[in-house]
Amino acid sequence: MIVIFTSRTLLTLNQQPCGMCLNARVDEELTEDNDYSAYSVGESQSGFRLMLCSGAGKPTRIEAEMHTEHGWGTVAVYEPKYCPNCGRSIMEYAKKEKY
Ligand SMILES: [Zn+2]
Predict the structure, then answer these.
(1) Whole-angstrom Cα distance, residue 27 to residue 19?
(2) Predicted TM-score of the model (pTM)
(3) What is the longest distance spanned by two Cα atoms in the chain?
(4) Which terminus of the chain, N or C, has less C-beta within 10 A?
(5) Counting beta carbons within 10 angstroms of the beta carbon of residue 53, is it exposed (0 to 12), middle (13 to 18) or buried (19 or more)?
(6) Ligand 1: distance of its center to the CA of 72 in Å?
(7) HSE-up of 79 (CA within 13 Å, CB side)?
(8) Domain ranges in the chain?
(9) 42-85 pLDDT, tens per residue?
(10) What's the gap in Å between 75 CA and the centre of ligand 1?
């Protein structure tokens, strides 16, 4: 079985993405070249930050970043099953099964 998630599928499931988990796989007007978003969330010590990111061909994720003389760099990534902002199940990046 192949499951294709579209904005219509998610509307049927009452699982509309919020601004933080929106991506090209759930919005037909976006592509994986223009759907990247990143928000700084929570509180961190100076030189560190937590980013809630979505898009760019990857599931919604929390990235821990550290600032160096070269700029911000990702040091850890966590991909939750549910959007930390709206609670939507992140289904669109699940592995597709073929029969
Ligand atoms: Zn969300």
Answers:
(1) 11
(2) 0.77
(3) 51
(4) C
(5) buried
(6) 24
(7) 11
(8) 7-78
(9) 999 999 999 999 999 999 999 999 999 999 999 999 999 999 99
(10) 23
